[in-house]
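Sequence, please.
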């Protein structure tokens, strides 16, 4: 059942600061983009799902902190500075003198970009529930987590489990963010579904939901698998995103974008959607803001691209359903 396009969701997080918790790594990518084995030069950037969300939230003017741990090394200092640059509070990020900062290598190819991780034993893999005692968490309206963190170590899984405790002073958003290479055996489907079902807001790609819980799932069937969150967003790649609130659903098609690289677009979407909710937007406008923020990531080779001019964004958010559908190249709503 679809609700009116401009209707406000039945539930939204309270206005206030956001805390994003998780690992961020230094990232090396061929410059210009091409197969890693043929590259003569590499570009150094940073990459982390949770810090990507934090950086885009800061771009949207949302007060946000990032909590993590970094090695006492040049890459750790580079990561800290890059995440702080858009205005993210990094003052409570721990420096670990005995563990390194994680590293990833991007390998672009005709079928997409493969990512090779070097993160075993990293500083962030030693994070645990003690992170939740940091001052930013005590004052947070929303805590943002992903399914990457519980796959890093037993202590990281304990951190996510503790953050999702039944009695908590903040709302929790959880992006499933399934990374198959991080999960031993067949543990991911049950663990990620259980964690997601304890969050207030959940974001999941339709493709990853089908990989985890069934090859022919529709967005509605994903909601059946994860019934408890107050808000569930199912992202269908370049096609659309559907938000379930209570018993109702809103679907917004994605605008057409000339894609340079898809890595980081899901994190950007999450930030835009959350910013919309925190700003009191309607469900439709929050989904549109998610799509527009994702487009910023799709147009660049790194994970963090510039947002469009605020006036352009407002004009797009105010479009009628038919006007948005024309921009997206989708069939107009009935």
């Amino acid at each position: 059942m679809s609700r009116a396009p401009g209707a406000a969701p039945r539930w939204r997080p309270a206005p206030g600061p956001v805390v994003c918790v998780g690992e961020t790594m230094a990232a090396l990518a061929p410059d210009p983009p091409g197969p890693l084995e043929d590259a003569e030069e590499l570009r150094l950037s940073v990459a982390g799902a949770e810090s990507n969300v934090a950086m885009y939230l800061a771009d949207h003017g949302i007060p946000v902190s990032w909590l993590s741990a970094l090695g006492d090394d040049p890459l750790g200092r580079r990561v800290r500075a890059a995440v702080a640059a858009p205005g993210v509070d990094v003052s409570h990020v721990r420096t670990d003198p005995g563990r390194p900062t994680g590293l990833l290598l991007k390998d672009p190819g005709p079928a997409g970009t493969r990512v090779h991780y070097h993160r075993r034993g990293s500083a962030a893999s030693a994070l645990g529930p003690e992170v939740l005692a940091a001052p930013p968490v005590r004052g947070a309206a929303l805590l943002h987590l992903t399914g990457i963190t519980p796959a890093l170590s037993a202590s990281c899984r304990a951190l996510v489990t503790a953050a999702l405790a039944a009695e908590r002073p903040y709302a929790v958003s959880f992006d499933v963010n399934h990374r198959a290479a991080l999960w031993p055996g067949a543990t991911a489907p049950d663990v990620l579904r259980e964690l997601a079902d304890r969050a207030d807001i959940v974001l999941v790609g339709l493709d990853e939901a089908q990989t985890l819980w069934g090859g022919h799932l529709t967005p509605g069937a994903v909601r059946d698998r994860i019934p408890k969150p107050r808000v569930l967003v199912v992202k269908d790649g370049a096609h659309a995103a559907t938000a379930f609130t209570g018993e109702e659903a809103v679907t917004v098609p994605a605008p057409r974008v000339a894609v340079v690289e898809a890595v980081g677009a899901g994190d950007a979407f999450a930030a835009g959607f959350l910013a919309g909710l925190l700003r009191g937007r309607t469900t439709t406008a929050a989904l549109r803001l998610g799509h527009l923020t994702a487009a910023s990531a799709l147009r660049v080779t790194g994970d963090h691209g510039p947002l469009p001019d605020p006036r352009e964004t407002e004009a797009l958010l105010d479009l009628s359903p038919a006007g948005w559908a024309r921009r997206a190249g989708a069939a107009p709503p009935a």
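Residues 1-5 have pLDDT under 50 and may be disordered.
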